[in-house]
Design goal:
Number of strands: 10
Largest sheet: 6 strands, mixed
Order of helices and strands: HEEEEEHEEEEE
Helix content: 10-25%
Distance between the termini: 40 Å
Number of helices: 2
Structural class: alpha/beta
Strand content: 25-35%
Shape: globular
């Protein structure tokens, strides 16, 4: 009985750590967000793509987020949408050149024209690596 309990506890702890290994970024209206910022009653449709290879053409620019799958949601007509902004504008707010690379929860965003929903930003800081500064965004805070 003890062995079964230990196996069960190890299994549960493995499942929990696997779920928190990366943030769950989603795509909505061609912008990066998180499910928590959307009113669940306003979501019309949700598509989950399990790998990069089956992403539709409109999501190809987000393929770097699809290593663990990628979710795209569509909001109902006339649904309110949170504010979004391009990464280049965010870079400027932090005093960096527009075309600076941005990291969000460890994901590297090379394209400064990609839009994100500003509500996903819990913390932002400038990090210098190899004499290059970049913006590092956390969606969960410290």
């Amino acid at each position: 009985m003890k062995k079964a309990l230990y196996i069960f506890l190890i299994f549960i702890s493995g499942m929990l750590s696997a779920q928190t290994a990366y943030s769950k970024l989603i795509i909505c209206n061609d912008a990066v967000g998180m499910m928590r910022i959307f009113d669940q009653h306003q979501i019309e449709k949700s598509n989950i793509f399990k790998s990069k290879s089956n992403l539709p053409s409109n999501l190809k620019k987000f393929d770097f987020l699809a290593d663990n799958g990628l979710t795209e949601i569509k909001l109902k007509k006339n649904a309110a949408s949170p504010d979004m902004m391009p990464l280049e504008m965010l870079n400027e707010q932090y005093g960096l050149p527009k075309n600076t690379i941005v990291f969000i929860d460890g994901y590297k965003f090379d394209d400064p024209k990609i839009n994100i929903y500003s509500e996903i930003i819990a913390d932002g800081k400038i990090v210098e690596h190899n004499s290059q500064k970049s913006l590092h965004i956390s969606t969960t805070g410290n």
